[in-house]
Specification:
Length: about 80
């Protein structure tokens, strides 16, 4: 049984990692590290906008509806 991801999924993984490296602070410790709830909520709103701008929301939606038409495997890679 081959448990390796296909090349296109690995390319997508590299894209996701590049976005994270470019968009998150180098010292990012996760949303739980933001103690102030208003600040955390503001970060979440901004982060959603960033993900949308970078094409990482609705990736399995059809292209004609604003998605990228990717597979569920790509969704798994994104969540990982």
């Amino acid at each position: 049984m081959d448990l390796d991801y296909p090349a296109d999924a690995e390319e997508f993984r590299a894209e996701v990692r590049a976005v994270l490296a470019e968009e998150l602070p180098a010292d990012w410790e996760g949303i739980g590290a933001i103690a102030d709830i208003a600040e955390a909520n503001a970060f979440v709103e901004d982060w959603r906008a960033t993900l949308a701008r970078r094409g990482l929301l609705g990736i399995t939606w059809p292209v004609e509806y604003g998605g990228r038409g990717l597979t569920k495997l790509h969704q798994v890679v994104l969540v990982e």
